[in-house]
Amino acid sequence: MFKKILIANRGEIACRVIKTAKKMNIKTVAVYSDADRYAEHVRLADETVYLGKSPAVDSYLKSELIIRACKDKKCDALHPGYGFLSENANFAEALDKAGIVFIGPSKKAIASMGDKIESKKIAKAAKINTVPGYIGVIENKDKAVEIADEIGYPVMIKASAGGGGKGMRIAFSRDEVAHGFERATSEAINSFGDERLFIEKFITEPRHIEIQVLADKYGNTVYLGERECSIQRRNQKVIEEAPSPFLDESTRKKMGDQAVQLAQKVGYSSAGTVEFIVDKNKNFYFLEMNTRLQVEHPVTELITGIDLVEQMICIAYGEKLKITQDSIILNGSAIESRIYAENPYKSFLPSIGRLTKYNPPQEKTHDDGSITRNDTGVREGDEVSMFYDPMIAKLCSWGKTRDLSIERMESALDNFLLEGIDNNIPFLSSILGSKRFKSGDLTTSFIEDEYPNGFQGRAVDKNEEWILSTLLLAYHINETSKDFTIDGGFSDEWEVQIKNKNITSEARNFHFKIKKPSMLSQEIYIKPMPLKSLSGMINDYIKVNLETDHITKLVGANINLFDKKKTKISMPEYIKCRIKNTIPNLELSYRGISLSAFILPKHVANYHKYMKPIKIIDKSNLLLCPMPGKLIKVLVKENDFIEEGQALCVVEAMKMENTLLAEKKCVISKIHFKEGDTISVDEIIMEFVFEKKV
After folding, report:
1. Concatenated DSSP letters for 228-271?
2. Which of 231, 264, 639 is nearest to 441 (CA)?
3. Per the confidence metrics, is the pTM higher than 0.70?
4. Are 184 and 227 in contact (CB under 8 A)?
5. Whether residue 406 has pLDDT greater than 90
6. 291: exposed, middle or buried (C-beta count within 10 Å: 0-12, 13-18, 19+)?
7. How far apart (Å, rounded) are the C-alpha atoms in residues 214 and 651?
8. For 568-599, how does the pLDDT look when each residue is reduced to its tens digit (9 = 90+)?
9. Mind listing the pLDDT tens digit for each residue in 482-530?
10. 326 CB contacts (<8 Å, ≥6 apart)?
11. Helix axis angle, 308-317 to 11-23, nearest 10°
12. CATH superfamily of 337-449
């Protein structure tokens, strides 16, 4: 077996490969840039090599530097990770010439399948089901519009090289094709150094399902079931699961057989993924083949018990595949949630900064047999850089059933402490908790369908409002009750004002009476006032027992809630949530719900209504930079008349291009930055007036 390998990637990708290499007693070499000098993958590796500046084009994508590092460190082989150089045929060839084994497919397979245009041609020739489209190179946006008109809308514009949603756009009109072609071209060049795009028909109500294949160098090929990857945003996967809740065994076999057929057609060896679009009638069409290990591979590992990284290494070493198709059994259900540094309440704008708190749920097998797994490349104190993908972790769960796997994932998200940057955990919790997701009714438009006006947090029903208000009051009393007295006696009537932090609605007031056995007790008795507000509750105080963990900032609460028949109502009897004291408010996060609470004793609340509200500063005439990034294109000039929805500029952050639009008709009065400038968050990019001054 190999003695030492170099991992030509970063983040959780590199950490994942190092984990298996250690298990196999293989030494590892990590590479790093300026931004990654103190990164987790650097700490975990046996040896390290500095590459250069932070941008990937100056470090991780410089193949000559990586090959030199392999030689200097006397590495037997190189693992490319999941992306970057894994789909570069020239890189695989250069390694071969240098006498370094590439832990991946052959140059021929990469060239055939790594290029999406060529792969479609090969698939069509091999009689694999393919999507109607134009599979040649498209020279310009006018040609793109012409082709789209012929195919029929909607269409998908897609970069020939690379993946990860970069260089991809869905267009429903000629104007969207023209604009999308320009942005996709720019992203493709910046991300992959390849401007080639193709266009194909976009299947409506599609599911995105991919087949995992394994193949050795002797022609042995198997498929390891499928992954459902339909929960996507901007063509990037958000939540994946295995197996798909949609496929039957017959369709699974047909798709698997075609995936194997395609892999054998190009002489594929290593782990690879064949992606399909599946319509509502279970007709499936070849989308692309990724000649690498996919980001979502953990869910396949969890349902098969097969370490895919280990298999890749063994295959590269020249071993025959010991796994047969008959031996592969899909066991239980697994889910992966991708945790990103982004703000779901502000159009998922990427977030950078330092992880002031990072405490993911413990990786373990639980008493009910379910499993929690977390593939990550960060630790507390790390800085999330603007130069790389904003993924923080891949949180995974496994259960004997899909329902159990979902339940375990919901609990794991509740237990994930992440502070210092914006993150999408509330968004993930909201998806997992939705009736549609739990029913398995998934399409690639799931997010657009469920959140047509953008994500604003999960709405709270009447029972939840009362119960969460009760929990917040109990927490507040236990944390600060010594400060609220009347003539030396404890105030027994309280008012809780709660508001969904991100949904534009009026705050709601709730009134309670309380009893507390002692100032030292975590137990408190709370009575809603009036009682009829909680229809069906017993005519008595509710007993709340708190368990507060100040390290993880998690609050567990046993709440004795019963209806007239003495059965539990809609909320669980035990709730675990996160409560943060932001003074003067408390902020609660629970299963995608984000509440802000203002809590006062009754004698104080009676006077608080006379306080003047804080004046809100109107910034509607300013375009503020929503994230730190680089201004790569200014699409307007000063004194231009602007229509509602018109594109104003393009800001690049974390390898993605974000087009900022005008919210209403206006005239550009001043532009503060020029193309190429780096802009911090909330800096003024431009100013406008809503009526032209004479």
Report:
1. EEEEEETTEEEEEEES-SS--HHHHHHHHHHHHHHHHHTT--EE
2. 231
3. yes
4. no
5. yes
6. buried
7. 40
8. 445 566 888 888 888 788 999 888 888 999 99
9. 544 545 556 788 999 998 877 766 788 888 888 877 666 678 888 887 6
10. none
11. 70
12. ATP-grasp fold, B domain (3.30.470.20)
CB 213 within 8 A of CB 311: no
| Residues 478, 452 contacting (CB under 8 angstroms) | no
Query: Which range has the top average pLDDT, 63-77, 117-131, 133-147?
Result: 63-77
Distance between CA atoms of 444 and 418, rounded to whole angstroms? 28
Q: What is the pLDDT of residue 533?
A: 47
Which CATH number is 622-689's, of 3.30.470.30, 2.40.50.100, 3.20.20.120, 2.40.30.30? 2.40.50.100
Between helices 308-317 and 297-304, what is the axis angle to 10°? 90
Mean pLDDT of the region 226-230: 97
Cα angle for residues 146, 148, 127 (degrees, 5° grid): 120
- Burial level of 684, CB count in 10 A (0-12/13-18/19+)? middle
Identity (one letter) of the amino acid at 691? E
Q: Measure the CA–CA gap between 259 and 277, rounded to whole angstroms.
A: 13
From the list 117, 68, 64, 115, the residue with the least C-alpha distance to 91 is 64
CA distance 170 to 276: 17
Domain residue limits, the chain? 4-103, 132-201, 206-331, 337-449, 462-608, 622-689
C-beta separation of 587 from 641 below 8 A: no
422, with CB counted inside 10 A (0-12, 13-18, 19+), is buried
Helix (H, G, I), strand (E, B) or coil at 87: helix
Q: Closest Cα to residue 129, out of 262, 27, 11?
A: 262
CATH 1.10.10.10 is the classification of domain 462-608: no
Instruction: Give 3-state DSSP helix, strand, coil % of the chain, rounded to 5.
Output: 30, 30, 40
d(CA 652, CA 630): 5
Task: Report the CATH number of the 4-103 domain.
Answer: 3.40.50.20
79: nearest Cα among 2, 192, 188, 193? 2
Mean pLDDT to the nearest integer, 51-63? 91
Phi (first) and psi of residue 222, to 5 degrees = -135, 160
> Would you please indicate which residues are annotated as catalytic (active-site) residues?
288
Q: Are 576 and 553 in contact (CB under 8 A)?
A: no
* Helix/strand/coil (H/E/C) assignment for every residue in 65-83: HHHHHHHHCCCCEEECCCC
Q: pLDDT-based confidence at 552, cuts 50/70/90?
A: confident
